[in-house]
Design goal:
- With 316 residues, the protein is an alpha/beta fold.
- It is built from ten helices and eleven strands.
- The strands form two sheets. A nine-stranded mixed β-sheet has the order 6-5-4-3-2-1-8-9-10. The chain has a two-stranded antiparallel ribbon with strand order 7-11.
- Helix 2 links the parallel strand 2 and strand 3.
- The chain is globular and about 55 Å long.
């Protein structure tokens, strides 16, 4: 069992994705694309603070396509120089990625490439606007880059599995083996042939939190969520959000990462009203997590934190 120490931070350096995947809140433009971008100076400061807080890994993505940042290699280099393990997740559905080799050589440890089919007709059902030929061409380039450079880069192909593409698993597994990649198969969330996700606006999360206001929270009963204790979610302007599983909506915003202590962030997550409505799995809280939480709740001015959980007793 984990001891609840900080593990990975998800950091978006830009605010855009080119695809319109119907199973992604960015894809349906619940999070609209914009030209916002995190400066390298801000990223450097965030990296330093993450290191001070005990984080060891950085994912340079959350709700965006990292290779649309034409300087992403510089961000990778900054994180690597600070000793971080680095992961990128991409569709690779781009005609040209000028800095692909520069980025991977800068120190990416894991590159995950999401797919939802091995032919264009199937692929575009979920990866709307994507071109499978671009993906395959870029995967060939990744293989060549890895062969000619001394690196420990791991490449995972991630099949988002739905009922209509289940037959693509075995052919994709064979392709992965031939390329020297790994295949990860996960069950796709939702139905790409419906518009269910378009209803998940900020008001939805506000209503869910309000409806659960009187419910006991798992965290109040000695439970722990991995996303609360071990992960950090930061958008391209340096704002912290409740977790990587939920959209970067105003009601789920915690505050400015560089202006908050680790205790303030943990306490704000703990008292956030949406956690009562969330169905993410929990487990028993460890002694280390209990100590962290008690310390956070003691040192933070709880009356300044919004939400009905603010005065809830801390149950061991």
């Amino acid at each position: 069992m984990t001891d609840g120490v900080p593990d990975i931070a998800w950091v978006d350096t830009i605010d855009v994705c080119q695809l319109k995947c119907p199973t992604c809140i960015r894809g349906v433009r619940g999070l609209p694309n914009s030209s916002r971008k995190m400066s390298l100076d801000t990223f450097t400061a965030i990296v330093a603070r993450l290191r001070d807080q005990g984080f060891e890994k950085i994912g340079l993505f959350n709700w965006t396509e990292p290779f649309l940042n034409q300087k992403i290699h510089e961000y990778v280099a900054v994180a690597k120089s600070s000793g971080f393990w680095i992961t990128l997740s991409s569709t690779l559905s781009l005609r040209h990625i000028d800095n692909l080799e520069e980025t991977l050589v800068a120190g990416v440890d894991l590159l995950t490439v999401s797919l939802s089919g091995i032919d264009q007709e199937t692929y575009q059902i979920n990866h709307v606007g994507g071109e499978l030929d671009y993906v395959m061409n870029n995967l060939n380039l990744v293989r060549e880059i890895r062969l000619r450079n001394p690196m420990s880069l791991r490449v995972d192909l991630r099949l988002l599995k739905f009922d209509y593409n289940a037959g693509h698993e075995q052919p994709l597994r064979g392709y992965s083996e031939r390329m020297g990649f790994n295949l990860e198969v996960i069950n796709g969330v939702g139905n790409p042939k419906s518009n269910w996700l378009t209803q998940m606006d900020d008001g939805h999360f506000v209503r869910e939190a309000a409806a659960a206001a009187d419910k006991p929270s798992p965290e109040d009963e000695g439970k722990a969520c991995e996303l609360m204790f071990r992960q950090m979610t930061i958008d391209c302007v340096g704002d912290v959000y409740i977790c990587c599983a939920m959209p970067n909506y105003p009601s789920l915003r915690i505050g400015k990462f560089l202006e908050m202590t680790a205790n303030e962030i943990l306490a704000a997550k703990y008292v956030h009203p949406f956690c009562r409505a969330c169905t993410m799995p929990r487990r028993d809280r460890t002694e280390a997590e209990q100590a962290r939480l008690q310390d956070a709740m003691k040192t933070v001015m709880i009356e300044n934190l919004a939400g009905p959980k603010a005065k809830a007793p801390l149950v061991a």
